[in-house]
Fold these 2 entries.
Entry 1:
Amino acid sequence: MNFLDLAKRRYATKKYDAAQKISTEKIETLKEIIRLSPSSINSQPWKFTFVTDESLKKQLAAQSYMNENSINDVGLLVVFSVMEDIADFEKRNISVLPEGWIAFYEQMVKSNGDAATKSWMENQVYLSLGYFLSACISMGLDATPMEGIDRKAYKELLPQNGYNPLFAVTVGYADASDTMHPDVLPKSRFEQSEIIQSI
Ligand SMILES: Cc1cc2nc3c(=O)[nH]c(=O)nc-3n(C[C@H](O)[C@H](O)[C@H](O)COP(=O)(O)O)c2cc1C
């Protein structure tokens, strides 16, 4: 299937088939794919926590508002986290980069202050989300990005030393009764004329 067809098919799945769980092999492939995610100056300020343990998943589900049922039904929950401490990030991730890239970081990112630097780090993690969602559908997997999580509770439940959870993604197989499936509910997007300029 080409990318446009995959884009039409992927959707934020609301109901998963609890009887059909993702295989260990596919989970291992997803781990390697997300490791290869791109980031500005290859800064990689992230941690991806793959949760399959049912008991932990249930505790996380209870801290996930409207996403609780999806998380309980699905086989895999991936938590995307960002590095917490700028000094640690600079020591581990930035100092090892080529000089020109360090200069980019110093002049274009760090000079804007801590809040802007943290926001830039989070942007890198969000970029990996788009990449991950595309990877999932290319493997025949349904997925849902979820900002509807209690970040503080997630941090307490997970071994997240030095990282802050930002959002989570469920990965599995949609239930045939999911009314959000694009075959049932067509995708809602602005028209090209409203969002794309060709000059
Ligand atoms: C960053 C982000 C956070 C989202 N958080 C949630 C969420 O917590 N729960 C949910 O059911 N959908 C969530 N969504 C799904 C969006 O509502 C969905 O992508 C959007 O309505 C477009 O629909 P589609 O992805 O099915 O095409 C989120 C999407 C993104 C990109």
Note: The CA atoms of residues 29 and 50 lie 12 Å apart.
Entry 2:
Amino acid sequence: MNAVSTAEADELLCVTGLSVAFGPEPTDVVVDDLSFSLRAGRTLGVVGESGSGKSMTSLAIMGLLPPEAIASGSIRFGDQELLQQSDRQLRAIRGDRIGMIFQDPLSSLNPYYTVGFQIAEAYRAHRQATSAQAKKVAVEAMERVSIREPQRRFDHYPHQFSGGMRQRIMIAMALVCEPDLIIADEPTTALDVTVQAQILRLLTDLQRDTGVGMLFITHDLAVVSEVAHDVLVLRDGRQMEAGTAEQVFSQPRDAYTRHLLDATPRIDEAEEDGS
Ligand SMILES: Nc1ncnc2c1ncn2[C@@H]1O[C@H](COP(=O)(O)OP(=O)(O)OP(=O)(O)O)[C@@H](O)[C@H]1O
Ligand SMILES: [Mg+2]
């Protein structure tokens, strides 16, 4: 293994020259020569309009690109090159060292199993544990995401929870193996603004307590300004701007970022839902 310099020592994820293409034509390229890195305890916000390549970037990191997509470049996670791992190796990493939170918890949760069982199984997929031990870990995870009466709620089904509570269940699942990295792709987009704010606060609190690194994908600059230490702005798969959140928000260097900032709607159409 190569020696790493001190500057890179706590680097969790280092993406270099990542490209993703769906064919040989230049127009088939959906992620174009991206480079960025993420340290433990930091959140990198990846922003861009629909179709800018945010999800393809996160899927490339998780090894979940559609089979017809061709990825090139380098994705180093700790001392592993993710683009060179087998499907089996990637399955071992996902859900263990890398936790994932998606936009729509209903499509990620199985409607036929209780939420507690699903969190416990996410744990047992990577750890040797009896069902009693896994249940204890799952109840603790439900507690950590502020689900009241977790012992009782353990036996409830996904449809018995509100959208915000289901997203908390997904976060509990993503955290149950204490990952080093969380990839969250539009985790609050389906929620109304009040619940969204609660989930963002939960994520930032959990990050402060655990030191997990977070890649937070959103089209919403207002959300990114709430959670991100660093920001990467994408357009048509290309990096338009990168820097600390402070730099990007106070002095955007790129005209496209300024355009996005100007276009950010005021988020005051919130409905109170209290879930
Ligand atoms: N299977 C596919 N074949 C060809 N092109 C695809 C395929 N899947 C996605 N794309 C294209 O890849 C580009 C990037 O898509 P991606 O899903 O990463 O965008 P995104 O930034 O996540 O957008 P959104 O905000 O809508 O989620 C889009 O132009 C999309 O049309
Ligand atoms: Mg997307």
Note: The pocket of adenosine-5'-triphosphate (ligand 1) is lined by residues 22, 30, 48, 50-56, 66, 219 (CB under 6 Å).
